[in-house]
Design brief:
The protein is of the alpha/beta class and 382 residues long. 46% of the residues lie in helices and 12% in strands.
């Protein structure tokens, strides 16, 4: 049971410092597809702390036209031709060789090249690539399965068996779309069932980009780990990622500060990652600040708390929360999660009633409601 963080382009320093302090529940980091070579400081800190280091080749984004693709080390000058890969053994062998060779120094597991799965043919291509990587790599191999929800639901058992037969023992499952604050109970139950099918097949399953859903999945035993970014990547939507890269980047202005998307501010008491502007509005209420603030490190010595450095705060608060859950005996973990989510739901509802300014959107509660109902259902059945 563990937590994994995927680094953004400029996260190496804050992650290096975090790992140097000895995290309690973090067992792996995933280097950025474009910045693996420059994230050496984080790699060295991970090695010193016994934390695994993975790298994402990003190949699932490179089979589409788009902007900025040349910045990916795995870019070959043109989008990958999936029908050609599916019918050409030499083309697949070349892709596997290149993927293995491109992994940055210090990576402890090789990640097989992978593409988005939405059909039996695309699934077969990914499994073949994973099996070829297992046979050629000099280190253990992990697979990434980015997959459309509807296909995953119908094919989970077969896919899990095929990945197991390929020699893969560790897989990151990225359901799409999945993980927002507006998921239905049905979608949550279906997603957890997919993860359980892979776990039942004997695979170490990481529920990728999954935030609250990932932590609950681990508590219920559906997955062994879950992954998030550093203040982001708590949900997965493959179509949205592709659509963003299909548009030209916005022109920079003199007012731009750069740095890409902003990290969200995680508020553990709400089980919620807020935008910086929303977090600031909430923290301005003194009676709310004492409920949703943080008392760890620098956060505990300044009234602005998590707003000082959202990424540093995100790392230590997520890690601490996961560690507390892991400290519980296995049979108690679902109850601990149920209590955490119930407290968060009560507080979100109170904020929506008493603190949300007119014209501002309320905090969503649908996913929390669904998670609470699912845990109660599992407990009743057992």
């Amino acid at each position: 049971m563990s937590l994994q963080f995927r680094l953004g382009f400029n996260d190496q320093k804050v992650v290096e410092d975090f790992l140097s302090r000895g995290p309690a529940a973090t067992t792996a980091i995933v280097l950025d597809p474009k910045a693996g070579a420059r994230q050496r400081p984080a790699v060295e800190a991970a090695a010193a702390g016994g934390v695994d280091v993975f790298w994402d080749p990003g190949t699932e984004l490179l089979s589409y036209e788009g902007y900025g693709l040349e910045k990916f080390p795995m870019w070959s000058g043109a989008p990958y031709d999936l029908p050609q890969l599916a019918t050409s053994l030499p083309a697949r062998a070349e892709l596997v060789d290149r993927t293995i060779a491109t992994h940055p120094e210090g990576v402890t597991r090789v990640t097989a090249p992978h593409f988005f799965v939405n059909s039996p043919r695309s699934a077969a291509l990914n499994i073949d690539l994973a099996e070829a990587t297992v046979s050629q790599a000099d280190r253990p191999v992990r697979a990434v399965l980015a997959i459309k929800n509807s296909y995953a639901k119908s094919a989970a058992g077969d896919l899990a068996a095929w990945y197991r037969a390929s020699g893969v023992r560790q897989i990151e499952l990225q359901l799409s779309p999945f993980g927002s604050e507006d998921e239905s109970l049905r979608k949550i139950v279906d997603g957890f069932a997919v993860a359980q099918a892979f776990t039942d097949a004997g695979l170490h399953v990481t529920l990728g980009h999954s935030g609250n859903l990932g932590q609950v999945a681990v508590a219920l035993g559906h997955a062994s780990a879950y992954s998030v970014g550093v203040g982001m990547l708590e949900r997965n939507n493959h179509a949205l990622q592709v659509n963003r890269r299909s548009k030209p980047p916005k022109e920079r202005t003199d007012e731009d500060t750069g740095g890409g998307p902003q990290a969200g501010v995680y508020l553990p008491a709400l089980a919620y990652t807020a935008t910086p502007s929303t977090a600031l509005k909430l923290m301005q209420h003194s009676d709310l600040r004492v409920r949703i603030g943080c008392r760890v490190g620098r956060c505990g010595t300044n009234v602005r708390g998590p707003l000082l450095d959202p990424r540093e705060h995100y790392l230590h608060s997520r890690d601490t929360e996961m560690a507390r859950m892991m400290e519980q005996p296995a049979g108690w973990r679902s109850t601990a999660e149920l209590e955490r989510l119930r407290r968060a739901l009560i507080l979100r509802n109170r904020i929506n009633r008493d603190y949300v300014a007119e014209g501002d959107p309320p905090l969503k509660t649908r996913t929390l409601d669904g998670l609470i109902e699912d845990i109660e259902r599992v407990q009743a059945a057992s």
